[in-house]
Amino acid sequence: MPLTGTVDVANARIDLFIDWTATAGTQTSGTLHRRVGGPDADNEYVRGHFGSSLLGEQAYVSDHEAPLDEQIWYVAVNNQTSDTMVAGPFTIPSNGYVWMKDPGRPWADLRLDLCLTPSVADPCPVPALLTDTFTRTTAASWGSTEPPGAVLAWTTAGGAAADYSVSGGQGRHLIPPGGVVRHTSVAQPQADVDIVADVGINELALTNSIGACLIARMVDVNNLYMTRLEFLPSGLMVFSLRRIVAGVQTQIAGWSTQLPYTAGGMFTVRMQVEGNSLRARVWPATTAEPDDWAVVAVDSSFAAAGSVGMRSFSTGTNAGPFALYDNLSVSALPAPSAIGDDLAWVGYRDKVRAMDAGLFPVLDRERPADVYARRKDIVTSCLFLSRSLDAINRVYELYTAGGPLLFQTPEIYGMDKPYGQQDRYFQPGDLNEGYISQDQRKPVRLWSAPLTAVDLPVGLPQGTDDANWCAVKDKYPTYADLTATGLTWGQIAAGGAA
Prior knowledge:
Blueprint: E1 3-8, E2 13-19, E3 30-36, E4 44-48, E5 58-63, E6 72-78, E7 84-90, E8 97-102, E9 105-113, E10 128-132, E11 138-139, E12 155-157, E13 164-167, E14 170-174, E15 182-187, E16 193-201, E17 210-220, E18 223-231, E19 236-245, E20 248-260, E21 267-274, E22 277-284, E23 295-298, E24 307-314, E25 322-332, E26 343-348, E27 352-353, E28 359-361, E29 372-386, H1 389-399, E30 405-408, E31 423-428, E32 432-435, E33 445-454, H2 469-475, H3 479-483, H4 489-493
Antiparallel strand pairs: 1-2, 2-5, 3-4, 3-6, 6-7, 8-9, 8-30, 10-25, 11-13, 12-15, 13-14, 14-25, 15-24, 16-21, 16-25, 17-18, 17-24, 18-19, 19-20, 21-22, 22-23, 26-29, 27-29, 28-29, 29-33, 30-31, 31-33, 32-33
């Protein structure tokens, strides 16, 4: 009686397959239990009487309520022979999403992107394509970038080999006067990139300026996009977005920062190139990143992927200043059509600790009318955002059925112990649909609904095996199938169903 399973990450469920070893021609059924955290953990009822099979046939059970980010084992019990099997572990990764499911209709669910949750710092970071913290020591080159991300050899252009070195935890360009520009770059297959690095110079500019730049979509030294942080003799800096096409440099956006600099002081520069949109900002490396972009431009000179890296120059009289670079990170930006999910989780709202006033019916059509669930002492609400007409339809499909919903929240959201169980059943109240745009034809909506925590609505079978209406539904998919047996409801409840 082998028990196997697969994890369906896209639908946050685990599909179990049971091959029975009963005698050919006989009917066999079983009960399936879930064990969370270990193969010897307590049983949690999943499904009972989940079908009859002949020898060699395979029974299928899908567990839509398995908790996220947990190791899960399953135990199948043969109801006729009491033989048991254990399989596992299985894990459903949350991948930064909140799930809302209707346990009575496993196909009805919502997956909400958690990345917009304001109370969690960047819960869904984009993996870096390449990074470099310059912890090595090299001369006449920059060596190679460091993990995580791709490990690539730096290419240099301009000046002499001795002008490039890594020491003191920084990549360095020596830029004596003479107008020769230094470049270090690595090839990058992504056209849309997010580049972050710390930049600075080791001495104050005496005359004219010294510049440190980040570059993107570089075809060669004469064709590229760049940010330019220009250090002036006044002790202040000018920040700009520029393009170089066929060797001709053009400023496409600029900002006089009024930020003072010091010798060796570092500033963080962030540059994003996305389609035809370019944007950048700069701030002292010891302070928090600002929310607003300092310079923004639209340009179509370069559309394809190219190299990324650094570019340094000096137009002044300093004998031999160094441009300094550190903490480089290059990440991919998603394609414009793929930015964000069409449903985004905003969060749970304030909690109300309600008095436990008694028992009330659970609105679940698959349960007998005399089965009750106890109301919990938490009343809260949820808030989420939709961005498409399809998402609006899915929200209606889930919330208008009237039954409890299973909320599954990644551990990063903080719903795990000791603050409360990570996965919880809520009975939603009236759904509120709010318009974000004044143009109500646009599909962006802000949804909210009150939630009352309830006990698990699908529990152990009540009465005899066949009085569990889930089992009856498995045996008789339609009402016609049920009446064709000739049995009365009393006979079915007493276990008379064949």
